[in-house]
Amino acid sequence: MLARSTIRALRTRGSASPRPLPQASRAFSSLDLIPDEPVRPSVVTDKVPGPKGVAASAEIDAIQDARTHVVVPNYELSKGNYLVDADGNVLLDVFAQISSIALGYNVPALLEMARSDEFVKAAMNRPALGSFPPIQWASWLKTGLLTVAPKGLDQLVTTLCGSSANETAFKCSFMAYRQRERGSPEVAFTKEEMDSCMLNHSPGSPQLSVLSFKSGFHGRLFGSLSATRSKAIHKIDIPAFDWPCAPFPELRYPLSEYVAENEAEEKRCLEEYEQILTESKTTRPVAAVIIEPILSEGGDKHASNSFFRSLRLIAKKHGAFFIVDEVQTGVGATGTFWAHEKWGLQEGEEPDFVTFSKKMQAAGVFHKKETRPNAPYRNYNTWMGDPIRILQAREMLKLIKENDLVSHTAQTGALLTSSFESLFTSSGAAGKVSNFRGQGEGTYLAWDMASPQMRDHFLGKMRLNGVQIGGCGEQAVRLRPMLTFGEKHAEVLVGTVEKVLTEL
Questions:
Q1: 325 carries an active-site annotation
Q2: Catalytic member of 79, 358, 359, 499
Q3: 427 pLDDT band (50/70/90 cuts)?
Q4: If you average pLDDT over residues 277-298, what whole number do you get?
Q5: Which helix (H) or strand (E) holds 468?
Q6: Complete edge-to-edge strand list for the sheet that includes strand 433-437
Q7: Residue 115 has what pLDDT?
Q8: What's the farthest any 2 CA atoms get from each other in the chain?
Q9: What are 77-97's pLDDT values in tens digits?
Q10: Are residues 292 and 426 in the same domain?
Q11: End-to-end alpha-carbon separation of the chain, Å?
């Protein structure tokens, strides 16, 4: 628990009194990895962003659209779980660059690795990896990313970002689907196929599709955007592939009070999903199904483990490859390294592809050997990722394992869940908060505010009180802290939420 002197120090403008949590069962502290991390938030301006942040955004806006800016940080001064902005405000960051920072800002061990000759030379001699990989490439992958390869997936394609990881998985699926139709990877392409693909016509450009789900988000490139169903603003005015969209369950909370209703809702969605797969075979066959373990940008939407296992088995039954998009849920955020580990998939039921990015800092696709393209240059671009991100990921994975940070995140999530459940049933939250969810998913927690306007007002007041927190969907608040987020941070977070709720 916090010392009394520290609690008194937190009772300053810009930070709420910490709300005591149950004692954690292990002793990891973010100070183990970031010894100079701030002990509390500090807000020194009347608004966040303050005048220097507003001016910095205005300067950027002259050359690049700044309308999506939240704050303009000073990354040189940011430490651990605390983000410092242009005005010197110190904010507890539980959004982590849209769930993209695993360990924190300016972690000494990572800075030390970045100063090594290995890292510097990899940065300054960036290779076209598909054609000119460094001699250490296999070793870097085997000692880094491949140490966390999902069960059953021993192949890896590195990419530049989450969107390109999903696009790569789509391409692999289409190629493997057609290869399976031809009966053998040794069957040569026909002249008609080669000629027609240059005109974007069939049979060389087949009428295949990717099935995604309502409220899902898979990226902003053309294929990934066609599979994205979260917000219209992402898609409006952009030509899209005519790909099917299946319903995703709209669960009712608390889950324990709506067991029968939620089972019926999941059954309805599964039946419609299978019907789409069946009917598509005569029009635009579904080569792949893509799903997030938690539909994140669409509002942190959940479903049961049995629902996801059924999705996988139904896809397999209909010959569609199965892509699990772990761009946001991967790397320990949900209390297991990969969120889909909780689904109970048996041998032979593993996904065909698992995509990743964000907290890994590197990006790519894990897949099975049978989905490797049958010819070179079919999954290829100049960079195919970046060696320095592979080295960064390798060092982060080492630190995650040494400090058992996935288990730490699961335990911290249990503490947060207990405290928020108590807070959200109090009179101060009545009529303001509903649908608290994510229990059992580490720190991957969310809740809905009474309206979109209240949600946005809440986020702004949280920043003014020293906590950078994010939203998703129409009116959801989501937590995306770093893996080093622990009990002391949780006390500040919950206390600040309590304070802001009473002020709304």
A1: yes
A2: 358
A3: confident
A4: 96
A5: strand 467-468
A6: 433-437, 446-449, 476-478, 470-472
A7: 98
A8: 78
A9: 999 999 999 999 999 999 999
A10: no
A11: 28
Q: In the chain, how many domains are there?
A: 2
DSSP-based three-state secondary structure for 92: strand
Chain centroid to Cα 363, Å, comes to: 11
217 belongs to the catalytic site: yes
Domain match, 219 and 323 both: yes
| Eight-state DSSP code of residue 475 | T
Active-site residue flag, 342: no
Residues 6+ apart with CB under 8 A from 357: 100, 159, 161, 162, 165, 327, 363, 364
CATH number, domain with residue 440: 3.90.1150.10
pLDDT reported for residue 412: 97
| Contact (Cβ atoms closer than 8 angstroms) between residue 344 and residue 309 | yes
- 121-132 mean pLDDT: 97
Range of the domain at 149: 140-157+176-401
Name the catalytic one among 95, 119, 213, 217. 217
What tokens does 184 get? 């053998």
Query: CATH number of the domain that 219 lies in?
Result: 3.40.640.10
Same domain, 318 and 350: yes
Q: Is residue 123 part of a domain?
A: no
Angle between helices 259-280 and 305-317 (to 10 degrees): 20
- The answer to whether the CB of 134 falls within 8 A of the CB of 124 is no
Asked, as a colleague might, if the bond just before 18 is cis with ω within 30 of 0, I would say no
Q: Decide if 279 is inside a domain.
A: yes
Residues 391 and 412 reside in one and the same domain: no
Residue 28 annotated to the active site: no
Same domain for 105 and 61: yes
* Same domain membership, residue 423 and residue 388: no
The full DSSP string for 305-356 is: HHHHHHHHHHHHHTT-EEEEE-TTTTTTTTSSSSGGGGG-PPTT-S-SEEEE
Do 97 and 236 lie in one domain? The reply is: no
Query: What secondary structure letter does DSSP report for 2?
Result: -
The active-site residue out of 382, 425, 456, 502 is: 382
Verify that 64 and 31 share a domain, yes or no.
yes
Is 264 within 8 Å of 150 (Cβ atoms)? no
Copy the structure tokens of residue 131.
Answer: 């054609």
